[in-house]
Design a protein that fits this description.
With 188 residues, this protein is of the alpha+beta class. Strand 2 and strand 3 form a beta hairpin. The radius of gyration is 19 Å and the shape is globular.
């Protein structure tokens, strides 16, 4: 195995960049086994989901890709976002002006505020996960290696133990994010 690490993870046959580094290592390991770029992406996504489930998780969305198929010249788009339930409507969340104070996830990612962050917390936040389907499509349609080889780096990370400190920090940040109800109580 000829691998060099620093800011990027380099290996024979390619380079993989991902955050956290465990994701890049997973992708590099798959390349070194003869996998292609799609195999590396799939392995990196799964490793990232294991190491940082608060940011990339198998129960949600986190994958978008544009693939140029070399043999046909055809361009494919893979967007593995969640799918809203059939009863969802465009106006089911009440948006409000961005408030003062610590920004919420909505303000940071979407440039708006939603009452009580109902699109993240509570029963209206439920949607059908698309992450595993997207990773599976990349591997199945354009990858070279069997699924077992793609999953193996993430499996090894789990078996070796996952440091929880990174996850705990983000969970506490999200837990402390103010909702409109909390903002009203704080002002009283």
């Amino acid at each position: 195995m000829s691998r060099r690490e620093g800011v990027d993870i380099w290996c024979e046959g390619g380079a993989v960049s991902a955050e956290p580094a465990e994701g890049a290592r997973a992708g590099a390991a798959v390349l070194e086994q003869g996998g292609n770029a799609m195999d590396a992406v799939a392995a990196a996504c799964l490793a990232c989901a294991v190491v940082e489930p608060q940011a990339v998780d198998i129960g949600g969305y986190a994958l978008a890709a544009v693939v140029l198929e070399g043999e046909t010249g055809r361009v494919w788009s893979v967007d593995a976002n969640t799918v809203a339930p059939m009863a969802a409507t465009a106006d089911m969340f009440q948006t409000i002006p961005i408030g003062d104070g610590r920004p919420t996830v909505n303000e940071l990612e979407f440039g708006c505020s939603v009452v009580d962050q109902a699109n993240f917390y509570g029963p209206l936040a439920v949607s059908v996960p698309g992450f595993m389907a997207g990773v599976g499509v990349l591997s199945e349609r354009w990858g070279r290696l069997p699924w077992k080889a793609i999953v193996e780096p993430a499996k090894v990370i789990v078996e070796d133990g996952i440091p929880y400190a990174r996850v705990a920090r983000d969970v506490e940040f999200k837990r402390a994010a103010p909702t409109e109800t909390n903002k009203t109580e704080e002002k009283s």
